[in-house]
Write a structure and sequence with these properties.
alpha/beta; Aspartate Aminotransferase, domain 2; Aspartate Aminotransferase, domain 1; seven-stranded mixed sheet; two-stranded antiparallel ribbon; 13 helices; binds pyridoxal-5'-phosphate
Length: about 375
Amino acid sequence: MRPPLVPVNSLVRHVAALRVELAAALADVVDSGQYVLGPGVAAFESAFAAYCGVAHCVGVGNGSDALELALKSVGVVPGDRVAVPANAAMYATTATLACGAEPVFVDVGDDATLDPAQLARACDSDGPLRAVVATHLYGRLARIDAIAETCRAHGAALVEDCAQAHGARSADGRRAGAFGDAAAFSFYPTKNLGALGDAGAVVTRDAGIAARLRALRQYGWEQKYVNTLQGGRNSRLDELQARVLSIKLPLLDAWNRRRRDIANRYSQCIANPRIAVPAVAGDEYVAHLYVVHSESRDALRAHLDAAGIASDVHYPLPDHQQPCFAGRHAGRSLPVTERQARTALTLPCFPELTDDEAERVTAACNRF
Ligand SMILES: Cc1ncc(COP(=O)(O)O)c(C=O)c1O
């Protein structure tokens, strides 16, 4: 008989222990008569700003809106150029295009985050950038100090994409979201901190940027029915999701530790010359996704599938090669991004994965 499938993630397991508390909070919201931008949203915004170590958090509808509004809040306007990585499923690129700006694709390093040297080269050679999006991909902090330094030197704003990196910390204790001019978070259900539907936020140290975000998320209103900003949207966080997020936030660090333990165990125990594993990591990695690389990626995937182990590919097609561009960026060469798109494979890694399941994954990789 086939053993039970080891999933890449399991939201059913994730919420099981919180069922009673979540149901009570949801009932509370139903009875309150306040459903959008109410006291639950304000409470979550201050708790999450404090968690990230910044002064302001502005709740919005999802992570994509968070990125778009973050770019607008730091001054990106139509015609501007914005540097983005091309290995993260079009998220930063889509936000850039939604601002009417032009994405400038920059290659990543072996850690799958923006290569600071390539960014510096793009700044020097391709004309002025209004902003740079640094994506902390897979839950690993980008080399953010070097990126911030390049942004400062070239007068570009820095927007962090923290959708996969809630709680990731640098050696000096600063968390993802505390480095840039603004930082976007997604609370999509599969994220390290996830809602029970779509939700997002932008955090910032800057009161002016926060004020612009509060206007942008609600039509451009400075006050009700007074539109002072163009580029506004309806992208508000609702009370139900905010209450869910407030219940889960105190558990985030423990979940992240468990994710990292599983990831580090894989990195220590998977020993197969056909599979390259990431280095054992500390707090800078919150193991949103555990991604290995193999020149025989598709064969490895089939082998794992036969052993009852699910896997996924994050991400198979780089942004500059997406069909929506109809070949417009065909001449752009991003060797690391393109190679990793061919070799990346995501293994099961989530807080509720059991030790036995993790061992099955390791053993199957070692048999490949
Ligand atoms: C790195 C990254 N950025 C942005 C997003 C967009 O977030 P959302 O799906 O909430 O719009 C995601 C999530 O899927 C993501 O992983």
